[in-house]
């Protein structure tokens, strides 16, 4: 795959990463942003999409998902849509930055798990508490199996489990709402059978959702399998059955065609610890005037950084992204004097915003 050349890379499309894209764009620096999640918005979307936020300046109240949408709309002038595919060409979701290597010319080479490679001149780590990755079952042999899934396919992609036997693992909101989404899905994508696998007969979900799922179980439309997965049978790289340890102490085989694990997400700091940045208790140490890390040209903004007086609040992350962008542009364009300009009155900023 060709190496993508860009001024800057933003690692993390959480609220702070999205605002970082906007600030870099305003200052005339192009960027690519990468996130492990299938959707932009970080914690706001992954952890509290429907909860209200009351302390974003100028926005008296909005939900986590609404804030992510507003930030995407604000960054739109700097997110380039590929006209053929409709996808945003410089927003790479479902991918994790694996390595950040300094180059002899002062730039950086960035590689992702999906095999993308970038060359850039400054890096903005907006990684929050780490990359959000789906929780899995504690069965090592499941890793990499072709019929184990963590996300629902994005429409119009066909569901791999259509007309086949699907086991959904989990007992929380995410697992139960997946059952609800699939039970009446169109015939061509509906599984032949749906089994809900959970370790005990207790769910943690909205009472109305739980009542619906319990009714489907009573009607035989959903099978309930209780117990702890302790192993898996594999054939040709596919899981054919889970071994489930029941409350009776016996292990039972649960045959399946596809396994959809819906146990929620957990943040993993992952490869970031190997990027040579000075860390203080899993946070990247930065200087509070520039938000630059111990490596010149690598900035850290939002929940991932630490400095005296740090508060893990959206407002603080937005401030950090703004100052980091201003510091970076001054470093990258030393021959161009950088005058502070207002979006209200600057013709240049209007041009960059696509207004002029
Ligand atoms: C329940 C709850 C309620 C909250 N309410 C408020 C509130 O009312 N007001 C307020 O100000 N703050 C609130 N917060 C805090 C606020 O959500 C965080 O401060 C904010 O989300 C931090 O944004 P961020 O972009 O730095 O990190 P995140 O939102 O954590 O986003 C980081 C993103 O980086 C991605 N990432 C990390 N590493 C990699 C990698 N190597 N490769 C690719 N992607 C990677 C992650 O997948 C993630 O999407 C709340 C937090 C929670 C949990």
What can you tell me about this protein's structure?
By secondary structure, the protein is an alpha/beta fold. It folds into two domains: 4-133 and 266-352, 3-Layer(bba) Sandwich (FAD/NAD(P)-binding domain); 136-263, FAD/NAD(P)-binding domain (3-Layer(bba) Sandwich), CATH 3.50.50. It has seven helices and 24 strands. The strands form seven sheets. It has a five-stranded parallel beta sheet, with helices on one face. It has a five-stranded parallel beta sheet with strand order 12-19-13-14-15, covered by helices on one side. The protein is elongated. The model has no long low-confidence stretch (mean pLDDT 94). The structure holds flavin-adenine dinucleotide. Residues 11-17, 34-37, 42-44, 47-48, 53, 55, 96-97, 126-132, 270, 272, 302-303, 312-315, 317 line the site of flavin-adenine dinucleotide.
